[in-house]
């Protein structure tokens, strides 16, 4: 049976997936903390290669040579892309990746410069400012514009509690290490690879929905959700994962 390996996004940890894992039972699942997050709080990295090296070791230690699919949300999806399509690290029996609201990469140096400046702005704020204040501004960004006041307040409280142990310095370091400005553009590799890649996006997440449609990705749209579909509509998210797993089983029999 294929194992699902979950990678969370920036500001989260492996517990973000607990409700999804519970709904998927008895499908075997493994949740991995990214560097600077959760139980990997003391793991330091400075770039994508070091990040995927750590992730690779975690996967190989937990799975040995068992077949698996990586499910990555946002930053976790970008790390999955780098691991699968860029890194030369051993990947064991990686059978595919599922991307949830993950950016495939920037197309120009101007975009990369602008993104680097934006990420450094947030990195400096996370390192120096009051955590609640920074998170309040963070969740005002356009990608979270679908959230109402109550939803925004709930997620700010959750993230503040999660990050209180370390403050925002760890997030600052992760932003510097894995800025989108440092990521290769994976559009052509996504189109040409034989590795199955699936894309999940919320119907209210207009930016990433356009990425999926414009690049003709093999995608699924989750109703009544924005950027974080697995939190906002977990039942539909799990339904899609089950469809993907059935697709793998059918192809294997053929």
Architecture overview:
The protein is α/β, with parallel strands linked by helices and 254 residues long. It folds into 2 domains: 3-107 and 184-253, Rossmann fold (3-Layer(aba) Sandwich), CATH 3.40.50; 109-173, no CATH class. Helix content is 49%, strand content 13%. The protein has 11 helices and 6 strands. It has helices spanning 18-24, 48-63, 75-85, 109-128, 131-138, 149-163, 169-177, 187-192, 206-214, 229-232, 234-253; strands at 3-7, 29-32, 67-73, 93-100, 197-202, 219-222. Helix 1 crosses helix 11 and helix 2 (48-63) crosses helix 3 (75-85). The protein is globular, with a radius of gyration of 17 Å. The two termini are 16 Å apart. The relative contact order is 0.16.
Defining key terms:
11 helices, Rossmann fold, 254 residues, 2-succinyl-6-hydroxy-2,4-cyclohexadiene-1-carboxylate synthase activity, lyase, six-stranded parallel β-sheet, AB_hydrolase_1, AB_hydrolase_fold, SHCHC_synthase_MenH, single chain
